[in-house]
Amino acid sequence: MSSERTDPITALAQLQAEAAALQGGPPEAESAVPGQVSIVFDDLPLPPRRDAEVPPPDPALLREQLQADLLREQLAQQQIETLNQRNRSRFLHEEQNHIREYRRKYSRRVFWVTCAWLMFTALLIVGTGFKNAAFHLSDTVLVATLGSALAGVIGMFLVILNWLYPRSDKPDGK
Q1: Residue 136: helix, strand or coil by DSSP?
Q2: Where are the beta strands (DSSP E) in the chain?
């Protein structure tokens, strides 16, 4: 190979001729296919160009993109919290309506059971007051009956009403 500068096509042709001579084949210049040198160059990938490389990102632009992503994430989180609050509020409202229905229903039932209980106790007292030979209660039985009736009525009233209207232990009324 000569030391003087030649164009790349000529240099490639010379290299191919030398390689063919070493392998024992015909030199490339004598090849029957014209333009074979240009076919070789067409198949080679082009090296990446320096000016086509991506420049390093601008730190200010990266900071703005990070802030925008953070704001989007915060907005999405606020939307989720808002939806959760709405669902929780809707659930609490439905639960309060359900409790109100129970209060109406059981308040009436407790009232009528209490009335019936007191009427029964009043009938016992009136029946004992007539001093009828068929129905007579001693004083201790009468006191025990009145005491148990009063304790039962008050106990039933308190248990059911505490269940229907629970006390709030929190100072803000929730």
Answers
A1: coil
A2: none
Tokens 């016992």 label which residue? 124
Q: Please count the other Cβ atoms lying within 10 Å of the Cβ belonging to residue 21.
A: 12
Residue by residue, DSSP assigns 99-155 as HHHHHHHHHHHHHHHHHHHHHHHHHHHHHHHTT-SSS---HHHHHHHHHHHHHHHHH
- pTM of the predicted model, to two decimals? 0.40
Radius of gyration of the chain, Cα coordinates, nearest whole angstrom: 52
Cα 117 to Cα 111: distance, rounded to the nearest angstrom: 10
Q: At what angle do helices 139-164 and 59-129 cross, to 10 degrees?
A: 160
pLDDT band of residue 171 (cuts 50, 70, 90) is: low
- Structure confidence by residue, pLDDT tens digits, 39-98: 555 666 666 666 556 667 788 888 888 899 899 999 999 999 998 888 888 888 888 888
Contact partners, residue 12, CB within 8 Å, separation at least 6 = 37, 40, 41
Q: What is the number of H-type helices and E-type strands within the chain?
A: 4, 0
Q: Cα separation of 170 and 118, whole Å?
A: 36
Chain segment 114-161, per-residue pLDDT in tens: 788 778 888 888 888 877 667 778 889 888 888 888 887 788 778 777
